[in-house]
Amino acid sequence: MTLPIAPLRSRAEAEAARLPPLLARAEHLAGAVLLGEHGRRRSGLGDDFWQYRPVQPGDSRRHIDWRRSARSDMQYVRQREWQIAQSVMLWVDNSASMNFSSDDNLPQKSDRARLLALAVAVLLNRAGERVGITGTLPPRRGNAQITRLAEVLVRESDADYGSPDMRGMQSHGRALFVSDFMGNVDPVRTALTSSADRGVQGVLMQVLDPAEEAFPYRGRTIFESVAGTLAHETLKANALRDRYLERLAERKAELRAICAATGWQYGLHHTSDSPQSALLWLYRAFDRSMGR
Amino acid sequence: MMIGPIGFATPWLLAALAALPILWIILRAVPPAPLRRRFPGVALLLGLKDDDSVTDRTPWWLLLLRMLAVAAVIIGLAGPVLNPQDDGAEASRGPLLILLDASWASARDWPTQRDLLDGMLAEAGRQGRPVALLRLSEPEEPVFQSAEAWRSRLSGVAPRPWAATPGMMARVAATLGSDDFETRWFSDGLSHLGREQLLSALEARGPVSVYQSPRPVLAMAPVELVDGALRVTAHRVQPGASRDITIEAHGRDPAGVQRLLATLPLSFDTDARQTSGDLSLPAELRARVSRFEIAGQSHAGAITLTDDSLKRREVALIAGRDDREGLELLSPLHYLEQALIPTADLLDGALMDILPANPDVIVLADVATLSGGEQTALLDWTAKGGMLLRFAGPRLAASDVSRTDEAPLMPVRLRVGGRMVGGAMSWGEPKALAPFAEDSPFHGLAIPDDVTVSAQVMAQPDPTLADRVIAQLSDGTPLVTRKRVGDGQVVLFHVTANAEWSSLPLSGLFVQMLERLAVSSAVAQPKAQDLAGTTWQPVRVLDGFGKLIDAGNLPGVAGDRLVSDDIGPDLHPGLYDGPDRRIARNVLGPDAVLEPAAWPARIPVTGLTRPAEAPLGGWLLALALVLLMGDILASLALSGRLLPARAALIILTALMLPDPGQAQDDKAILATSEVVLAHVLTGNAQIDNTVRSGLAGLGRTLFFRTSVEPAEPIGIDLETDELAFYPLLYWPITPDQPTPSAEAYAKLNAYLRTGGMILFDTRDADIAGFGAASPNGAKLQRLAAPLDIPPLEPLPEDHVLTRTFYLLQDFPGRHTGRRVWVEAAPPDAEKIEGMPFRNLNDGVTPVVIGGNDWASAWAIDSSGNPMFPVGRGYAGERQRELAYRFGVNLVMHVLTGNYKSDQVHVPALLDRLGQ
């Protein structure tokens, strides 16, 4: 069987092309943060020298520090600071409802969510933390992990609304959940409660489109979810506005309440806003949750 | 049905308007279609109920917009017509007589009149009325037949260059028959004698209505020569406000091309019916004027043709005896000068100085001997049509000229000495003149009693003498003899030009004789009795529109009738050729008076224009469309889907017409990226296709044989396409192709001036000879008239076209007509020593004109086979080959210009290089 080459190649290229820009943008975003005061504090953390100690039986010869050993008759092993690296698990909602933007000039919510998550991952990776994705990618360190993260992040699901995935979550780890949280709120509550039980703390980032905040619709309208599973018809869309906004505010309050109860932090980001500020907020939130 | 000035073709459709209120209610009740929106927040909306179960009502103004659109559609479909022409409903159903004055004055509004007539006939056809059409200027018995039959003949009904005479009117009145009919009379606006009687005869048979154009009639009286200036007189029929007109003098320029030679602005004062002005022109220019016309008036009355009466002949007077100063009355030339000064331009000087001026007449008064050179030059001039008038005298009598042998410049041999009669020393009485013989040019002139001859030179009796005598004395001796020399003539008066030998120069007869000999020309129109016995042949005659047409086989006109009769069917206005001169008869005589038509008050008179029928349906439907577009915009705006950018796009799309620029650009790019042969689209699909195939065939030949590799040929619409990209334009002539607009002509002229070439092909094998009556030839003349085309000549043997690629002398296409016309070589083109051709035009001829139907010979079908047979057998194929060669040469000529012509310089260049 022969596949038509040109479509295959172009598809492959299109797929491949999605990763580097996301990576590059995430690196760029993260780089901007590192230039700030918070970044310096943690630089070189993983390289910190701890002590030289004499070689004991069982030590690999590879670990002998030859420079130090040459200055005396003994052999020394160079030990670094024993770092307790946190493992941070990301959950980025990849459901259909995230693939929405009310304007051509605005990015889709999923795009912004991935960008923020990956940028945070880059920052955490530089800070020596291990970053993984719940359910699919166990936490690891290193630049290769960033690439793997990016690969997993661009996957999409067909479901209309996503719910947090708690698989692979380690006790006393850290977590970042990014979603619009428009779907059922119960799985979120369950996930956060169970994570709180396991000592996992984290950040809940709600990403919304400006249209979802403003509800600028009028006239007879059938609203459909992005995947098309839900529909609601109204004769006067403008009459619904107040009640919709009320419900949205309730939803936000509920999320905030869950977070407060479980010790998580709640953040709200609009795709019309700059990702930079959201990243800064996320970084500080992690800073706080790392318990320094 | 009529509502005000608007009528409806299908008025019952308007009943649908009653449905509009129902539609209003329905439209109000039905909610607008729901909009589907993707919205992730729908999860939050689930379960929310609408407060109000009633939908958003469509706003009243949107409803109104839609109502208006629907109403416009309904009214538009009902076929509204502004000013419908159905006034025939109240007219009678009986037969209809349409009477046309059809005179020269009707010609000014003929197209309008014909349109009205056409409408009238169409209406009569619808009503089934029998119609008779009658031209008063060409009366015949009225024949009532179907209107359609008349309509088909309408284009052949043209005005005549004369007006109806009372006799014609009486003839019409006599043939009207006894049946009743309605009469519609298309008047020319002039008063004509006999009209009252005809009108009452018509009124006896039914109602009469008159149609008459309100446009003023302008006419022109013959131009007269007054004190050396041309007195131009224009008339108008209706006195009114002051009005400026322009008189144009047309004639041939020195190159023989018809041009506007001079203009004279004239002005009618308020309420003046006549105006005149003087136009001073140099004699040379004046002699070339062939007609005067009032600018912008296209009828025969606004034109006067000129004849010999405006031309003053140049007469050179040379006397042999200039030594007797102060004795004016004895001067041999005194009486001649007196007789000729009013009518001729006199030249004075030595013979050899005068001859190059080529006078019409040279008078030698008592000049006996001429030097050899003088005699040769004079003989040469005479043979070319000059008139040598010699007078006898003492010197001639004493000389030996023409004594034994007849001198070439003398009509007869002369006896020695001459004779004296009735003098003191001689017997007998002075002799009187004998009546002129019938074949004499003086025939008809009255001879006064007091003209006597007392001395003369005597002619030797010769066999030819009797033929040469044109006047003799009562005793039979010759007085005036004449001999033809080539195209000219030598006339000898056997007496002196002064009163020494006879009293002839003292009498009026002398002047008349000079006139008859065409030494002088009459200032005024000749009298009828002057022309009695002569027959005048029409050469060119005017038609009703003032166009000069060939007289064809019109019969000759007797001289007295030519002058005295009115213009009519037997005497067309035009130019008449007679013995030794040409007389013009114009529509208006010198003393013509034009009176406006006066119709009795009971006769309804209407103008020619009536408000045109204007169907409004299209406009209303367009309005409905616009309203619906507005409805789309408004609906979009209401539902929030009208983004500013989208709105701008929609409005732009609605405003923008389909852009022809794109196609134009594509064509331009195609035409400029390759050499493209182009042809003019004639509108006749078959011919266009043939020409296209022909150019394709020629292109293929060029591709195979030369380095020219043309792309596919392109058809050019002269109105819309840019011409500058095409080196060669093939223009096949069809009689029915549309005449390009003024802008297209401007474009064509620019194209010709900037180096383009047009190949005109009349495709008729030049059957009728060039420019003659073949319909294609006539069409070509009309098409090419506004083009800036230089003088042409048949393609000379040494033209560069004969050797740009192939050496050719014949240029056959499907036909083998020999004549192909190209730009004429400059007159100073000379053959260079050692070269087979002249150094001709330094450039490409802008036009090539022929009729050989080259495109058909070139044409190939899609598989490359010839589309049309050419000739027979091998000779035919040879002819096709030559046709291709002509095409190759032509394209080479266009593309390389005078490159081949430059080879004349090769020897000079080699010479300069020192080889």
UniProtKB/TrEMBL annotation, chain A:
DUF58 domain mapped to chain residues: 51-253
Pfam families: DUF58
Superkingdom per UniProt: Bacteria
Annotated PANTHER family: BLL2464 PROTEIN
Record protein name field: DUF58 domain-containing protein
TrEMBL record, chain B:
Lineage: Bacteria, Pseudomonadati, Pseudomonadota, Alphaproteobacteria, Rhodobacterales
One Pfam family hit: BatA
Transmembrane segments: 12-30, 60-82
Protein known as: N-terminal double-transmembrane domain-containing protein
InterPro entries tied to this protein: Aerotolerance_reg_N, Class_I_gatase-like, Double_TM_dom, DUF4159
Keyword Transmembrane: yes
Gene3D superfamilies, A to Z: 3.40.50.880, Domain of unknown function DUF4159
PANTHER family the UniProt entry points to: BLL2463 PROTEIN
Domain Aerotolerance regulator N-terminal: 2-80
Record keywords: Membrane, Transmembrane, Transmembrane helix
Annotated DUF4159 domain residues: 677-895
Domain of life: Bacteria
